[in-house]
Amino acid sequence: MVSSIVNGVLGKVAPPAPLVFVSQGWPSFLLSAMAMNLPIAGAYFPRSLHRYFDKTKSGNSTWYTPLDFQKSPTDGILVVTGTLSFILEHSRACRPSIVCVEEALRSTSPKTLKTRGSRARSDLEAKGYTTFVFKHALFGGATSASHLVGIDTELMPSHSLEDAPRDVPRSLSHFLNSASTGNFTPRWIDAPRDVAILPVSTAKVSWLDRPTGMNQDVLDSNGLLPVSSPYSLVGCPSVFCTNDKLCARSITAAEALRIYSIPTFMDQVLLPSIPTVRHRLPFEDAVSPEITGYIFRRLWEIRSGGESYDGRRDSVPEPQGVEEEKLSVLEEEADLVERAQPLMEDFSEGREDSSLDGEDLLVDEKDVVLSEYSPSLTCDVRDSNDIQIQSEMTSNIEIEIDDDKTVITNNLTSQRNAVGEEGSDKEVVLPLGKRGFDKEDALKGRQIAEVELPDSTLLHPAFSAPSESLEAASAALHVSKAVKADDAEVPTHIWDERVFKNDLKPSSDAQKEAAVATLRRFGLGIYWKNLLGDCRERLRTNFGQKWYNKSRSKHGKATELAVEVNALANVMWHATEADWFEYKRGSQIHYFRFPPIYQKMARDGVKVFFEKKGPSSKRRQRTIDDPELRKKVRKKLEKVIDRGYIVEAGISLKSLIKYFPVPKGEDDIRMVYDATANELNEAVWCPSFWLPTVESMIRALDCNSFMLDRDIGEHFLNMPLHKSVWAYTGLDLGPVFDDDENASDDAPKRWFHWVRCLMGFKSSPYIAVKMTLIVEEMARGDRHDVDNPFHWAAIRQNLPGTPDYTPTKPWISKMREDGRVAADLFTFVDDERVTGPDEELTWQAGHRLACIQSYLGIQDAARKVRRCSQTPGAWAGAVVHILAEYGVCILTSPEKWNKLKSILTKWLGRLESGEEKLDHKELLSDRGFLVYVTKVYPSMIPYLKGFHLTIENWRGDRDEEGWKLKSSKLRTATPLEDIEVDDYDDESVLFDQHRQEKCVEGNKEDDEGEGYLNAPPDGKTTAVPRFRSDLLALLELSNYELPPLRLVRGKVVFTALYGFGDASGKGFGSTSSHANGEVSFRLGIWGRDEEGESSNYRELRNLVEAAEEEARKGNLSNTEFWLFTDNITAEACFHRGNSSSKLLHGLILRLRMLEVQQSVVIHVVHVSGKRMIAQGTDGVSRSSRLEGVMVGEDMLSFIPLAETAIERHPSLLSWVASWSGINDIKPLGVEDWFDKGHGVIGGAPAPSSRGIWIPEHEAPGQVHLWAPPPALADVALEELLKARHKRTDTYHIMLIPRVMTPRWRRLFNKAMATRQSTAVGGNGKEIASSAP
Description:
Blueprint: E1 2-10, E2 12-13, E3 19-23, H1 28-35, E4 40-44, H2 66-71, E5 77-82, H3 84-91, E6 97-101, H4 110-126, E7 129-135, E8 146-152, E9 187-190, E10 219-220, E11 234-236, E12 245-249, H5 253-259, H6 267-270, H7 289-300, E13 301-302, E14 313-317, H8 322-325, H9 328-347, E15 377-383, E16 386-391, E17 396-401, E18 406-411, E19 427-429, H10 439-442, H11 467-483, H12 493-499, H13 509-543, E20 553-554, E21 557-558, H14 560-576, H15 599-604, E22 609-610, H16 627-642, E23 646-648, E24 658-664, E25 668-674, H17 680-683, E26 684-685, H18 694-698, E27 706-711, H19 715-718, H20 723-726, E28 730-732, H21 734-737, E29 751-754, H22 764-780, E30 794-797, E31 812-815, E32 824-828, E33 831-836, H23 839-855, E34 874-875, E35 878-883, E36 887-891, H24 894-912, E37 917-919, H25 920-933, H26 945-952, H27 986-991, H28 993-997, E38 1004-1005, E39 1011-1012, E40 1020-1022, H29 1026-1037, E41 1046-1050, E42 1055-1062, E43 1067-1073, E44 1079-1085, H30 1088-1091, H31 1095-1112, E45 1119-1125, H32 1128-1136, H33 1142-1158, E46 1161-1166, H34 1169-1175, ...
Parallel strand pairs: 3-4, 3-5, 5-6, 10-11, 42-45, 45-46, 49-50
Antiparallel strand pairs: 1-14, 1-44, 2-13, 6-8, 7-8, 9-12, 11-12, 15-16, 16-17, 17-18, 18-19, 20-21, 22-26, 23-29, 24-25, 27-33, 28-29, 30-31, 32-33, 34-35, 35-36, 36-41, 37-40, 38-39, 42-43, 43-44, 47-48
């Protein structure tokens, strides 16, 4: 079965003179001219029809009647429609002209119409007109109408004006609504059996056999509507009856508008005036607006390359059938065909005839139609074990598939093969190469001859990193391991070099060393003196000049003075034990130097909230048998005791915490204190909080940026633990410090408790990050001060959907007064990343950060500091490099890259060894890590499906390939969207371990009480068939010795393209903009298989094939392609990179592979159906080309990514004011997100702050309204989350249009305590009212 697809490019229509319309009846030419914004000098048609046409859109003050034209003709190009006599009467005086003969069609026999048409054609040709007969059915309509058009010789273009079909032919079935109800009496008839369905290309009026008991015939919906009897009954399928019945009814008024090709913008005025089709329709005798629009375009369309109309109708194979798409050969082996293409491209290098013509794949009925990835291939799939690929070039590649190996044999005539030899026959083993993957390990020693595959963007979503980048990443990895040890040396030479950078008098190394040592001792003395002075001033200010004479206890309890003196004494003790670079005896926060609203919290700790009574377990700590490990543990415990982080129990302890060591660095351990084991973590409630991602940091980078890594030393241990928790944090140190292993469990010796936040306590990360954000607020300082390294003056917005959008720049940037991107700071737990526009400013920003931290008593881990670099090590799980020849690139760390490959190799090896039962818990753990790492390489994400399906395959509600059965009601315990990928960072794994354990706990019940299993009872699952092929694909994509670079923001000038896709019922359509201002379109109809599939499948498939069509035209290379759809599932699936539906997942894979092939960044965005209608693509899917961008409206005017909710709906301010009680509420500006939104309303050095800028905070209870555009919603939400983390005494309202939700919805749900989706009203063309 062959369908038709129309592809075309539209330009501007510019007639040489204004148009004058004279119509005896419905002015169809006027309708097209108004839609296309053509110049109109006047319009003369019956007064009764004036109400249907908005004269303001034509630039005319009034409409006229034909009689007015006879009295006073208007100059211009005359367009006359009506009977032949009417035409001859009104066109006699004016030339040039276009005429269309329109006779009364209702109740007129086809024979009579044909006779009249022949006579009219002769008469018009005698008058000097070139005549054409246009059939409505060949221009997207479904009526039997034909219209005679005559065009004056003076207007005829140099190219031909053919009456050939310009659209996919349709039948009534494409416009009927099976859910229609209305002003008709349904009559149920038996659906005929074995009815021959007419090929759409030959559709005509077709009648069913007269049903029993009916006195009239019934139209077959697979035919056309007879214009002589549009009220005829049609056999329509209906949702209100069974499949073996049809509803014999007349078409509805709404269906009539689509069948007659009336644009949707006319519905509002026409539908109220058409009760039924038994009444005469005002437009039923007129020529179709699609035909009149086609005539205008053929006559006067101007394209960027000259004058032409490209609306070709291509006869192509029907899109790949759903049944064929389900065949396992496509699922399991199609990737091998894809991998052959780079070889063929390599073979064709240097050939002049290697250009591709874009022909589609042609197969016979028994063949499987493979989705086309390269237009240079035709594929004849005869059997799943014999796949032959023929190229348009002279090479012939054959793939043989058996159970042991896959071999590609090539025969070349005077071409170079994969290893550069002329005309030789070689065996090339796919999919493995030699770029770093050890295939022998993966396949358990299997010996297969192999040659190195050529690098290919198809196989690899990134490119090989330059040697200097790889060396930098490798060096950073080794350094990061070395400096993790607590006794690692501080690289003092970094600071020494800066001190002597401008040394005019050469000095010896010894002299320099002595000089800087003297300076540091002197500086340290000043530091102690100033700190002591501030402590004394604090006491004098709060307790008077004679504070030392006041009582420090009252009723047996310490007074506030005693608490303060004790805290200040601790501050001084820790400080005086420090040297210039390190806190030798730990640190204590200098709480009195914090902003006033945070001082008490910094001294006493963040309050911890208990949900239930605290634990009471006091089990004795287990003994560590390994003497060496015990020695290391004892050393670690002595360290925290010596630093005062744990103290000997002077209170009644209620519970003891177990502790254990984990490896740290190359030869060190980290102590973890398991507050989960004693159930303390279950007793407390901790708010969720946000941590920055690598995407957050990349926004602050351009191609000139530098980066500097710093680290907070003893991050958790810096922070005081609130007294309410002390009693539940007891430690039994006896088994480590004593030799008596037989002591009773209740023996209260060597019991200590924590006074600082401990690793393993649920609230510790929240508390530590909260205090870090407060410190960061001070470190950033006054942004208006040009001497501040963190200075910035304005926000630059570079938003998609705006005319000046440039994909090579970040969407949002803080800009300095000198026009450069400002320095910025990002902290992931305790890992700090400073960015800046040049090396010096980046160092100064990092220096300021360290100084403020020292001023506040926060440890700066100087041993981890390295020089500023454009190729630093890993941060937040990813490595970001800025390379001169490429730009901003991202890769994962070598450590994680090697772990990824080892995981893949491990599972492939187990499959190859014949292992049938796989460990479920191990699969869960490995999948979580892979989900985390593949965030850096999105093209890998679809290939994780084998892991997802295998993990759930034990449930028994799956088909043979592991896909969930449609009838299944069982719920997946760990869906992909619930995997917390943040848990897989080295640090965060430790304090979020309890969340990971929940994924593999035993059987539980859900909230509704329905039992479900989180894991198989025996802990085993079986691999799905595609698991092996997915592992092979992932191994090929990861086939680099070190992690490859993925370009994030390059120096190459990229172009942003925009496209809309819609699949309305049985048709589909898409429109795309181009850099030259032209709009291309694509439309077609679905085959029978696709009609039976879900709308989600049809919508997503249309998007995929629209993108592939643009790729075939060469429009996507090095672009950013925005695809808009009114199907929210398509957006969600693409953003996740996978789907639980087999068919949807395959489509997502095609889009991802297209990204790789074309070096294109694809975005899929959901918009409302109203917006899709107004933009014109909804009409394109129904063969209407008279709406939105199809008639010249600006594509960007329909793209809502840069519009805020209030810009779209100003009335929202009144709505917010009505329930918030704040009448003058105003939204925060973008610049306000970074200060006022955090409660900072100013700042200045305080009298006691020694020149340090202290932020001024607003009073509690303030309300802030945030209204970001969708493209920046994630940025606004990140800032709101930081603000809410610091302060819980202010209120925030967030208004976001429901667009680009996958980018920000999770942040939104995390940030907002109460959420509401509100629909804002509006009608028709008012885009601002189309939500989302």
